[in-house]
Amino acid sequence: MSNWSQHVVLDVEADGPCPGLYNMISFGLVSVANPALSYRGEVAPILQHAGLEAARNIVGVSFEQQKTYRGPEEVMAEARDWLTVLAGHRRVVIWSDNPAFDWQYWNWYCHRYLGENPAGFSARRIGDMDAGRLGEPFNTNSWKSQRQTPHTHDPVDDARGNAEALRWILSEMGVPVD
Known about the structure:
CATH superfamily: Ribonuclease H-like superfamily/Ribonuclease H
Helix content: 25-40%
Shape: globular
Distance between the termini: 12 Å
Number of domains: 1
């Protein structure tokens, strides 16, 4: 049985589809064991362009506003420290609605600014867990109706809603989280 204190839901907001070519704007980390525990990281741009206007419109953060955020080296170190306290020096397990997006930014920024990723080399997709629970491999979105916190594109709100839904999935499976 896993200690759920080391499990965290991640959500990332960015100005484009991939790191290195676009800027991560912000990220939210929320404890699965206690969704009231969260960390918000807002990072200054590392590239000198604003990315895709459509992506920025969804997030609601202008390039000029993002320039006022703290540097990623400081924010990523602070997030790592928050995770270390939360997980008690155990390897963090990251969950996400879409790790193909969220994880790639998180992993890239961790390696670039920390030299390592406190979550190792993989992440778990919430929708796949629920599809397995249901025995319906293509039903990867119905779990989203179990979010209590609305999906707003604020990374902490979105991570919290996903953590709430993940806790519901686990309870449906008979897995104790508390």
